[in-house]
Structures are given as C-alpha cells and as structure tokens.
C-alpha cells in the first residue's frame, strides 16, 4: 500500500506544496494529517474575482466548439490520470477504490457530454406576429461561475459544473470543502495539463481554486461579479447561500440534501431489490446525497426482506477502503460518527429497533461503523431528518397511495424509486400524483445516477439542476432578438402610435 505522501505525489502534489499553511487536512482512512495547506486570504478574493472577469472577457470570444476542445483535452488528461486522482479521492474522502475511480469516470463522462454540447448550444427561431420580422433566441456566456463543492463527492459535481460552464464561455472559481481541498488541487494539476496542450487561447484565470472556509465562499456568494453560484452541500448551507445570491439578483444552482426512499411492492424481485438497497444504503458509507435512507416495504414482504437485508449486512467487509473486498469505508470524521450515533439514539427513543450501527475499530484513527438497519413503527422526526451516515430506516405500508404519501412526506426531494413488476404501480409512481422528487426510478436504487440526465431535486434539495439534459442553460444568458427586415414599423399587439 503506498504511503499517503506517495499517493499525493503521484497525483502531482509534492510535499512542499502541502506544508506551512493553516488548514489541516486529515485522511479519514486513519485520521493522519496529510497537509497543512495555505488558505486563500479574504483580502485576495477581489483579485481572484477580477482575474475571473478578465478571463471572461477573452473566453466568451473563443468559439464554443473551440472551448469544447479544451474540455476534450481535459477529458483525455482525466483518463490518463484516472487511477492517481481516484486514489486521492479515496485518501481524502474515504471512498472504496472502485467508487473513487467511478467518481473520476463521472468527470470524464461529463467532459464527453460537454464536448458534444459545445456544438449544440442551440437557440430558437420564433414566429413573429408582424410581417417582415424575425424573432430569435440566442444563448450567450454569462460570466464567472462560483462552484462550491462538498466532501462526499469532491470532484464529480465540480466537473458537472465546470465542463458545462467552460463550454458555455464562463470561467470557474472553485471552492472545495475544507475537508477535501487536495482533490481540488490534484484536479487543478490535471486541468493545467489540458490548458498547456490547448495553448494561448485559454486565458489566465479560467479556473481558480480558492482554499478556505465559509468566509472565502461568502466572498463568491455576495459578489455581483460572480453571476452564477452553484453550491452542493447541506440544506443548512443552501439556506444561507440562496437568499444572499438572490439579494444581488445572481443566479444560484443549489443541490442540497436528500432523504431518498425506496418503495418495495409485493411483486418486487426481492433479490434484485436487496442488491440495490445494499449498494445505495451502504455505498460511500451512506454519505451520498442520493443514499437510500428510507425503505417503505409492503407489510406482506417486510419480514422476509428485513431478514434478507440483515443477512446481507452481516456479510459486508468494513475497513480500509483501499483493500480489495472492502465495501464500507470510513465516515469522513469523528463528528460524522457522533452524528450517526446520536441519530440512532433518537431512533430508539422514537420506537425504533436497531440492527448494527455500532462503531467498528477497523483502522486506528478512522471513524468506522457498521451500517445500521432500523425498523421504525412510523415515519418519525428522525426519519424525516437527513443524517449523513449509513442508516436505513424500514417502515411498512398497506396501499400504494399510503406508500407514495410517505415517500413524499419529508422536507427533501432529491431521489426516489420503486421496486415492482406491476406496470400500474410503476407508472403511478412516475406520474403527477407519484414521487415529488427530481429523480424517480423503477427497479433501480436512488443513487448512482448517470450524467446524461439533469441532476437535482425540489423542496429542501434546492431546486437546481446540474449535469445532463438542458442543465447547460443555467450557465448562459438568454437573449431574445426581433429583427425587422421590412420597410414598415408595425407595433405588436396592434397598437397604433402615429406621429
Ligand atoms: C452527491 O452525492 O452529491 O447519483 C452526488 C449519484 C452520483 C452523484 C452523487 N452520480 O449517486
């Protein structure tokens, strides 16, 4: 197993870059200190933002397909450095190797998507009501895009935003989580390789990484020179960020908490459901915004499913996420483990029966826990709260209507799914009276979305959409143009104004 310093060096982060600063970075694998990083000072933020504005003045004039070429090169460099960057994700976020690599693959995928998009930033031609007139809608670059990311997906959500922003003509200022700044610095090394190959057309300051806490983020949130602010993180963070961006009439793209459920109907393929449940409840140690947190099971199969799950949970290997065979790595830190234990105590007090969930002494210095299955008598307060840990609450239902009502009766609205072989149930779940989430799946768990669809959700999830579909429109400004090629000047709506 390489040392932490070797893993970082392989990703282009030398020891001298990682010492002498005030931000202590620890690996969740073993709690070891891996860096003392220099933080961006608040006094430097105006210059950072001015640099991004300068980059915007140049980048918006580069044709979009050329901008796509830079993103194509970024995708190539990510492919070449996939193993090294994936290892930094594992080191700093604690993901198992396959999930660290998967996160880098998600970056590569969105680069591919954005390259194609760079030739498809389509506008519209609109029928004018006036003779000799033509109306069009054109999409233009918008300006610097601030991207605030969370520890649990330290690189992919940056890529969803940055790949689109860059082809749309917007420079990016990235503030990673204080818990995972090294992933951002390692990504910047890769980005710089792509820029070096691309050449002078890429202005200085196209991507800047700022390291620090809330203050540094706040400088982006409140600046009128950062017209787009995309933030991934907790609902609490989004509730602080959203109104501040709105107060200056900026555009925010918020991807916040989830409290994702699966309905398991009587006809479900239970073996498939068990595999989907375990991956989505336990994968990434329950620290995805899409993690499965609530299981709403038909009473006729509840006992059987819980027995199968208890057996599957019992066979999970918990430990160093770099080891082959490990499926459950550490929580991000001791605070997360404490939060998990507090949630379990609350669940017990609210009538829950807990299986698992105890801390595990897997690697000294790390915060490891056995994933918990909690049978609940009802959807109590703790079930309606997102706890970022591997806790799965199990509840029963009688009618589909009741199950859908439970699924929707939480503050969050990110992801959801149903396991059923009954087409009426599946289609009802996906219909206007079904799931109220941004993501609704059939016979697939709630986590592990592909990049091609729009990603995000409603209510406390913040309403933003990132990644695929037409999410790119969030990074551009729309211009409606009416051109009069006649020799008359008719007014719309038949208004007469003769002078
Ligand atoms: C997140 O947890 O913030 O759908 C993002 C998924 C991943 C992205 C998760 N593709 O689980």
UniProtKB/TrEMBL annotation:
It is an enzyme of class 1 (oxidoreductase). Keywords: NAD, Oxidoreductase. Its EC number is 1.2.1.3. The active site is at 255. Belongs to the aldehyde dehydrogenase family. Homotetramer. This is aldehyde dehydrogenase (NAD(+)). It comes from Pseudooceanicola marinus. The gene is gabD_1.
